[in-house]
Amino acid sequence: MQAPTQFTNLNSSKPIPPKKPETAFIIFTKEQGPSLRQNNPMIAPNEFIRLVSEAWRNLDEASRKVYEDKYEILRIEYENQIKEYVNKYGPIENSQGVLFGRRK
Asked: Which 3-state string (H, E, C) describes 23-52?
């Protein structure tokens, strides 16, 4: 894994931690959204989301599993990246001061 190059702030030597993976629904939206948008070019954004949501709900189990498997792969990669990050830079503190990845 290549370390991120952006830093959390100017006073920190820690790079920004890895971002959480996109959900199965978001992966589906990114893949199927352009074709839905092309078929309905003048549709309002809220109607577009409604179309995508309806298409997601109407997917059969096998088709939905494809996107859930993609998410699962990304989730495992993310967990590995977080472990590497915590081992290298220490626990991650969010804006409320909550630590993530504290060593036990």
From this structure: CHHHHHHHHHHHHHHHHCCCCCHHHHHHHH
DSSP helix/strand/coil, 15: strand
- pLDDT tens for each residue of 44-102: 999 999 999 999 999 999 999 999 999 999 999 999 999 999 899 888 876 666 666 65
Q: Phi and psi (nearest 5°) for 83?
A: -60, -45
Cα 10 to Cα 14, 15, 70, 89, 90, distances in angstroms: 10, 10, 35, 16, 18
Q: Report the length, in residues, of the chain.
A: 104
Domains in the chain (CATH in brackets) are 24-86 (1.10.30.10)
